[in-house]
Specification:
mainly beta, Hypothetical Protein Tm1070, Chain: A, 4-stranded antiparallel β-sheet, 1 helix
Amino acid sequence: MKAALPTALFALGTLLAGTARATTIFTPPLVPGGNNLLDCYLVNVSDEPRSATIVAVDRDGNTVKSVDVTLQPGAEAVAQATASENARYCRFEVDGKKAHFRASILVVQDGVGSVSALAGQ
């Protein structure tokens, strides 16, 4: 019976080590003015599908937009907020390591495209 306990603990440790962990990535703030949009972009750069929640957040920490996604390898998704919604930064709650994703915040101007962009960390 004494040998069963270390074996069970080893099995439990192995199981927990293989369990996916959640990571949170934040961007610096950007302010979309006028008719501009704020985009929170996320790309899965790993070799397997991964789930995530992309959140545009206002200056008080309130959720403005939230998008739940499952991204295939190489796929991207975005949560987009209008300037009138007062989003200021992005939060990405991802399944896996930060190294599995690339995250950014962009201010987008209609007819022009991205006029400002910063990487998430």
